[in-house]
């Protein structure tokens, strides 16, 4: 099993919250102002700002000022430890998909041999 890097727990904690994951999904598309994130999520501004602060502390998002606005963007490199951790399970998913494909092909052959429509 892959070792979790020392700096990774902050990122793992940051994505543990569903609202923060939704924020990351929004920011993956484009840089957004806080008010845009608030409107897209239908949440109040203080709760969104709190979640953005956690993401900022985990270095999962970047913020820059543009006049009076704060613009947030995804810092995808901070999510790299997550990708590495999840990647170790890909082999298992592939094996399951291979098994599903094998079963589907077997059933299709059986139906064909029996003269049933697919």
What does this structure look like?
This protein has a domain of 80 residues: Orthogonal Bundle (Arc Repressor Mutant, subunit A), CATH 1.10.10.10. The chain has a three-stranded antiparallel beta sheet with strand order 1-3-2. Strand 2 and strand 3 form a beta hairpin. The protein is mostly helical and 118 residues long. Helices cover 64% and strands 12% of the residues. It contains six helices and three strands. The model has no long low-confidence stretch (mean pLDDT 88).
Condensed summary:
This protein has helices at 8-16, 18-29, 34-41, 45-57, 80-87, 90-114, and strands at residues 32-33, 61-66, 69-74. The chain has 118 residues and is mainly α.
Nearest-angstrom radius of gyration? Answer: 21 Å
Name given to the CATH architecture of the domain at 8-87: Orthogonal Bundle
CATH topology type of the domain at 8-87: Arc Repressor Mutant, subunit A
Content-based structural category: mainly alpha
Fraction of residues in β-strands: 5-15%
Oligomer: single chain
> Any idea of the CATH class of the domain at 8-87?
Mainly Alpha
Tally of DSSP helical segments = 6
Fourth-level CATH superfamily of the domain at 8-87: Winged helix-like DNA-binding domain superfamily/Winged helix DNA-binding domain
Please tell me the overall pLDDT.
Answer: 88
Helix-strand sequence: HHEHHEEHH
Q: N-to-C terminal Cα separation, in Å?
A: 42 Å
Shape: elongated
């Amino acid at each position: 099993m892959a070792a979790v890097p020392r700096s990774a727990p902050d990122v793992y904690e940051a994505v543990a919250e569903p609202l923060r994951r939704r924020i990351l999904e929004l920011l993956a598309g484009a840089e957004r102002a806080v008010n845009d994130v608030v409107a897209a999520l239908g949440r109040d501004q203080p709760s969104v700002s709190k979640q953005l602060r956690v993401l900022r502390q985990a270095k999962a998002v970047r913020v820059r000022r543009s006049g009076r606005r704060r613009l947030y963007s995804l810092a995808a490199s901070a999510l790299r430890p997550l990708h590495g951790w999840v990647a170790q399970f890909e082999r298992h998913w592939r094996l399951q998909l291979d098994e599903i494909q094998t079963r589907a092909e077997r059933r299709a052959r059986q139906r064909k041999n029996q003269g049933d429509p697919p």
